[in-house]
Amino acid sequence: MSRKDDKNQTENKEVKDQVEEAIDDAINELDEKADNAEVESDSSEELTEEERIKEDLQKEKDKFLRLFAEFENYKRRTSKERLELFKTANQEVMTAMLPVMDDFDRAMAELKKSGDENLLKGIELIHNKLKETLKAKGLERMDIEQGSDFDSEIHEAITQIPAPSDDLKGKIVDVVEPGYKLGERIIRYPKVVTGK
What we know:
Elements: H1 3-40, H2 43-88, H3 91-114, H4 117-136, E1 139-142, E2 156-161, E3 172-177, E4 179-182, E5 185-188, E6 191-195
Parallel strand pairs: 2-6
Antiparallel strand pairs: 1-4, 3-6, 4-5
């Protein structure tokens, strides 16, 4: 556990201890009032005073429960926000790496055309190592194929051309630039050409 987590837990414990102490003080104060009320008043007044003290005690308990629930919600919310931050903390670096991946893909396509096997193998090794490293950090390429349904929520249409065949109308004809996800979040939408 990191120092920051230890500090947060210590602060959470201190707040919880302060709340419990305040409730104990309120209960003791109410008990003292009840004891004083019994001594000072007669039996009929004792019941009404006792009922009032019980009502005050119930209010304090209710107040404590609400405060405790609010504190638990706060802890849960901050924990969730922290996890979300850790998942997307490297988004800026990953976004900066995407053009490098695109250049590698274009270079690989050109090297395959050249026919130099040794050069192709060497560049392929570097390309695969880069892809696997980025994948281990949460970067995932979105697989989109020709003929897939176009969805404006996850695709970015850059142009629309007459469909080469009837089955490609309203569907993806070509993928110009691949899209990438970092965890569950899309950090670059795939640029596609659709058929009309």
